[in-house]
């Protein structure tokens, strides 16, 4: 599929997931099954398949990691500056973290694989791993600090260490480094499962979206959408250009950082004293906006 077809497909499957949840076809249990399949099966298959078949020297690009960190910290600082005067800590903390926290796994990696494939997907898998190491601690730390909440860091560490996507990333890199060849039958099976990553993840994300209540400040939501969906990709493009990154690195870095706010931020917000209603609306708004903004981003890196 070309770029426009991919984005139409993205919108359509998100809409199916959203509509199926509204009419009760995707209830909590079924939506949870989709999420678990994407997280424990399809995404690990995609990560392993993309990294095990690529040259490790080409994938492990320092400029990709440095660029990701620079963009993340710059936009987090901008988010803090823009939202520092929000009415309450619960609103301020959510607005800040959702201005930078990207949906790297359920949207970023599958979309990158569908649009570019090859080494770009392998580098996007590296971004996913670096993002798990960076985004989650930063988000948990900001929410806990601003809301004066107790964060269970040991639980977050256990979740990271048992993350199947991270395990697949490490295994894929090991296979590549050792020059091993995955049997054709196994590779074909993994490819078939990996092909399900995007539609299943889109259905799961669509089912998780909600509009929230009428009490949400429209200006706050708007500023989050602008920072996350316009400013962050622009900062990413400038950063990777300044680092003289090659085309595959720029594509992986910019497209992954152009993803909407992660659904997981809603969970972190509700657990750590943030405004859950605002978090839900921001996820919906940035995801809806991403259909157009990703098309714009791909005009620069595609």
UniProtKB/TrEMBL annotation:
It holds the Pfam family Mem_trans. The keyword Transmembrane applies. It is a multi-pass membrane protein. The chain crosses the membrane at residues 6-24, 31-52, 64-82, 102-120, 126-146, 167-186, 192-213, 225-245, 251-269, 281-301. GO terms for cellular component: plasma membrane. It is found in: Cell membrane. Keywords: Cell membrane, Membrane, Transmembrane, Transmembrane helix, Transport. Signal peptide: none annotated. One of its GO terms (biological process) is transmembrane transport. InterPro entries: Mem_transp_PIN-like, Na+/solute_symporter_sf. Belongs to the auxin efflux carrier (TC 2.A.69) family. PANTHER family: AUXIN EFFLUX CARRIER FAMILY PROTEIN (PTHR36838), TRANSPORTER AUXIN EFFLUX CARRIER EC FAMILY (PTHR36838:SF3). This is Malonate transporter. It comes from Halogeometricum limi.
């Amino acid at each position: 599929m070309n770029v426009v077809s991919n984005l139409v497909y993205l919108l359509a499957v998100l809409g199916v997931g959203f509509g199926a949840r509204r009419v009760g076809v995707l209830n909590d249990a079924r939506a949870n099954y989709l999420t678990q399949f994407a997280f424990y099966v399809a995404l690990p298959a995609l990560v392993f398949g993309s990294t095990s078949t690529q040259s490790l020297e080409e994938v492990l690009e320092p400029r990709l990691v440095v660029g990701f960190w620079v963009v993340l910290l710059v936009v987090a600082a901008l988010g803090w500056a823009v939202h520092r005067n929000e009415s309450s800590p619960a609103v301020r903390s959510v607005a800040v973290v959702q201005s930078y926290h990207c949906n790297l796994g359920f949207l970023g990696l599958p979309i990158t694989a569908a649009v570019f494939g090859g080494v770009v997907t392998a580098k996007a898998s590296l971004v996913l791993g670096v993002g798990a190491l960076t985004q989650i601690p930063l988000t948990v730390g900001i929410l806990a600090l601003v809301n004066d909440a107790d964060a269970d860091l040991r639980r977050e560490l256990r979740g990271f260490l048992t993350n199947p996507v991270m395990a697949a990333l490490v295994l894929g890199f090991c296979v590549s480094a050792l020059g091993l060849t995955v049997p054709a039958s196994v590779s074909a099976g993994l490819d078939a499962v990996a092909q399900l990553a995007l539609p299943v993840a889109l259905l799961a994300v669509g089912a998780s979206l909600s509009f929230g209540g009428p009490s949400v400040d429209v200006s706050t939501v708007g500023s989050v959408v602008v920072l996350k969906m316009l400013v962050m990709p622009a900062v990413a493009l400038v950063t990777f250009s300044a680092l003289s990154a090659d085309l595959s690195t720029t594509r992986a870095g910019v497209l992954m950082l152009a993803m909407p706010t992660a659904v997981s931020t809603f969970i972190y917000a509700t657990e750590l004293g943030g405004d859950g209603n605002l978090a839900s609306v921001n996820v919906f708004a940035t995801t809806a906006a991403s259909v157009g903004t990703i098309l714009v981003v791909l005009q620069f890196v595609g």
